[in-house]
Amino acid sequence: MTQWDTPGYGAGQQGQQPPVGYPPAYGPPAPHGHPPPYGYPVARRTNGLAIASMVLGILWIYWIGSILALVFGYVARSQIRERGEAGDGMAIAGIVLGWVGVGLVGLGFLVAIATV
Question: Where is this region: Disordered (predicted)?
Fold first, then answer.
């Protein structure tokens, strides 16, 4: 018999002590009748395009790295919202660094045109 099978014990019994030998209740049972996991929480998977976006934004690789950082960053953000993955901060960093790279290339073109 598990703690969830014990009558009068569970999420609806606020303020009651669990029976002797049972751990404290943390809430209702998880779906399919399994108790909630104990120990460390399971880490979410990090989106690969978010990692690629941040790396390309850092490396710059002339102008193509900035463009790819923007593309990968925007695609990664939409995938992260859909899938519930981790890495939104890395995608945002890649997007910001991509726009900085594009801005520097644009500024370089303006300076080159102005000096001609």
Answer: 1-39
